[in-house]
Amino acid sequence: MSDFPKIWFLRHGETEWNAERRVQGQLESRLSARGLEHARRQADLMAPILSSESPPCFVSPLGRAQQTAEIALPGCGLVTDARLAEVHAGDFQGHRLEDLQAENPAYFERNSTALDMFCEAPGGEGYGPFYARALDFLTTLNGPSVVVAHGLLGQVVRGIVCGLDRSEMARLENGQGCVYVLENGSETVLR
User: Fold this and answer.
1) Residue 142 belongs to domain spanning
2) What is the model's pTM?
3) Which is catalytic among the residues 12, 38, 88, 150?
4) pLDDT value at position 2?
5) Which one from 16, 20, 37, 86 is the annotated catalytic residue?
6) Catalytic residue list contains 86
7) 161: domain CATH number?
8) For 123-174, what is each residue's pLDDT tens digit?
9) Using alpha carbons only, what angle is made at residue 136 by residues 164 and 17, rounded to the nearest 5 degrees?
């Protein structure tokens, strides 16, 4: 869909729990040393954009996104928006992925992508409400904007902007240390 303004989307840097393959959802985990490097790389990528334009910078309320934004967007006025939080992964939050897979292999055979695994998690938010809040956020943007958030939230936001269905969104990459540029219904990646 091309009726959204230009968006520079940054996924937070790697966290300690990402490195452990532990489900975060809306729980907190600090950036790892590698995650700090991801955020510094994003700062380098964003510097020329921020020097020529002054887009508003929206960030998830979760600590890993806030920490990334402070490094990647120094001196920018950050606007925290609760709609940018990662999907609530219910009973899976805080558990290691390999333990969950060992306990319920049939669930993970049915839900083979991260988007499906965590959106369908028992006691979780669910895909419908997650999609609705991402779309609600997008409809409030009135000009080019920077967004710092999360992997699955990014798949949904990027998918909405690019007109993708859920299965196509679920196959999008979830890179860290890069910037996804969304414009006119398509995506390019700055690395």
Assistant:
1) 7-190
2) 0.97
3) 12
4) 59
5) 86
6) yes
7) 3.40.50.1240
8) 999 999 999 999 999 999 999 999 999 999 999 999 999 999 999 999 999 9
9) 75
